[in-house]
Amino acid sequence: MFNSKITGLGFYVPDNVVTNDDLSKKMDTNDAWIQERTGIKERRHVVKGDGDTTTTMGVKAAQIAIDRSGIDKNDIDFIVFATLSPDYYFPGPGVLVQRDLGIKTVGALDVRNQCSGFVYALSVADQYIKTGMYKNVLVIGSELHSHGLDMTTRGRGVSVIFGDGAGAAIVSREEDTTKGILSTHLHSEGQHAEELSLIAPGMGKRWVNDILEDNDPNDESYFPYMNGQFVFKNAVVRFSEVIVEGLKANNLEAKDIDMLVPHQANLRISQFIQKKFGLSDDQVFNNIMKYGNTTAASIPIALTEAWEMGKIKSGDLIVLAAFGSGFTWGSVIIRW
Ligand code: UT7
Question: Is 115 a catalytic residue?
Fold first, then answer.
């Protein structure tokens, strides 16, 4: 058995900064409400027509991660792409990355686990590497939310939260089994699937043909729905559980954490977790203030920024944790 190690990180966000005041010109909201409830000051939105898509942002983040890892792009053995906002209904963005990076015909897998997507994707990469099947796996989390949000007062409970961006990691074989990804822990509870969901277009409740036939401007089923308070309550419980589970599996305690990088769902959720585990400000990384909630991209963007700022050093214990639609949640324990 080998271990797997993150050897390169990169992120990309579009240049276009959208402030809370900008949103208040489109819907009945305000800077005070958004900051108080979520901690978000601004987020990035792709400008329509400028060429950025979930895939292209993922490719830009991946290129940085590849360069930093020092591998040749043709040393990549497998691609795992996590998103809830793919360019196409099918095929998924994994194959588009293989094409756009111009790499050989390696396998490409798409992960559909929303806010937990990057944690799930990292777990997949980790298992392939641990068993010896692959040496270098490219893992991407990327989202283009802004073109699919209800930017009217009707959608304000959801649309002020989400932002666009991408993050990527190269996960490589590590011979030293005391270093790298120590363990991953994944969960789901489909009972609450519809509490944070986008129902249409789908082949279940809202068929594509129905939508075309009805052409109903009041149809909200193709905008994301979130039962905010219910999601919040579940998030704080599941975040805590899965962090404890990961620490216990490695005979570690909260005081051993050098850096917790939580999925950037809501600053209040991160602060709750920080308090619960008695962590200092230096032990938790947050950047939701600048980028909003970028679902599958949020952890790799935050991890990259923390690393770029010198907040992650060799030998540190890094904990990643996520919760989101599904419900799905998970954690990753890393000895850097
Ligand atoms: O990343 C995946 C996981 N997602 C999460 O973890 C998100 C979890 N949930 C949350 O972060 C919070 O529930 C929200 C930020 C979404 C909402 O905050 P809240 O404190 O739960 O507010 P609320 O939904 O209970 O709404 C409170 C009030 C309502 O008005 P009334 O009924 O009290 O008059 C809303 O209509 O705030 C109103 N409201 C807004 N007002 C201004 C909802 N959205 C907005 C808005 N601007 N954007």
Answer: yes
In short, whether 156's Cβ falls inside 6 Å of ligand 1 is yes
CA of 181 to the centre of ligand 1 (A): 35
Cβ atoms of 185 and 331 within 8 Å: the answer is yes
Q: Which domain holds residue 275?
A: 181-214+217-335
pLDDT in tens, 146-186: 999 999 999 999 999 999 999 999 999 998 889 999 999 99
Ligand 1 mutation target, pool 266, 269, 286, most atoms within 8 A of CB: 266
pTM of the full structure: 0.97
Q: What is 203-229 written as a DSSP string? A: SSSS-HHHHHHH--TT--TTS-EE-HH
Q: Which residue's CA lies nearest to atom 28 of ligand 1?
A: 157
Ligand 1 within 6 A of CB of 293: yes
- Any atom of ligand 1 within 6 Å of the Cβ of 39: no
| CB-CB contact of 99 with 61 (8 Å) | no
CATH number at residue 275: 3.40.47.10
Q: Are residues 33 and 104 in the same domain?
A: yes
Active site residue 263: yes
Instruction: Select from 48, 79, 291, 265 the least CA-distant residue to 165.
Output: 291
pLDDT per position as a tens digit, 63-95: 999 999 999 999 999 999 999 999 999 999 999
Q: Are residues 88 and 111 in the same domain?
A: yes
The secondary structure of the chain in percent helix, strand, coil, rounded to multiples of 5, reads 40, 25, 35
CB of 84 within 6 A of ligand 1: the answer is: no
Q: 185, 263, 266, 287: which is the annotated catalytic residue?
A: 263
Tell me the pLDDT tens digit for each residue of 180-221: 999 999 999 999 999 999 998 888 877 878 888 888 888 888
> Which tokens sit at 146?
């802004």
Which residue's alpha carbon is at the smallest distance from atom 26 of ligand 1? 157
